[in-house]
Amino acid sequence: MKALVYHGEHHITLADVPKPQLEKATDAIVRIVHTTICGTDLGILKGKNPEISFNEILQLVDGITPKVLSKELRDLEMHGFIERKVYPTMPVTVTYETTPYSETLNGILRELGQWGEKHKEKVKQNIRDQNGREKGAEI
Fold it and tell me: What is the DSSP string of 67-129?
């Protein structure tokens, strides 16, 4: 499977990795199947204010269609979070780059991440409870 692999600040790669396994009771596997792309997501994917192509984003975001990705990127560009660059190559190359304005979201996203860390055990328990109810309904 493909996954983003964190090697350190501004060094994140897309790599083929083995399917994750739960090894400890506190482990959780999260698979994102639909998402909304934020300008800072592009920075996370490639480092601070990088250029990333449409096809690279399409590979990284599982379950998103080209049509939905195009709309999300147009919205981000319209709101000033990313800049679209078109290069006169054959075929035409289009890249996207986060703007300094997108960094204004960093505090909000950091707080959201901290909230997730604090509440992940409750979320995991809710998932376990729901799975238990679904298994009970199958019997």
Answer: HHHHHHHHHHHHTTSEEEEEE--SSPEEEEEE-GGGGGGHHHHHHHHHHHHHHHHHHHHHHHH
Give CA–CA dist 109/126, Å, rounded: 23
Q: What is the mean pLDDT of each run of 10 residues along the chain (139 residues)?
A: 65 71 64 50 53 81 84 89 89 85 79 79 83 70
**How many residues comprise the chain?**
139
Q: Which pTM value belongs to this model?
A: 0.53
Do 53 and 93 form a contact (C-beta atoms < 8 A)? yes
Give how far Cα 95 sits from Cα of 40, 57, 98, 122, Å.
15, 10, 10, 39
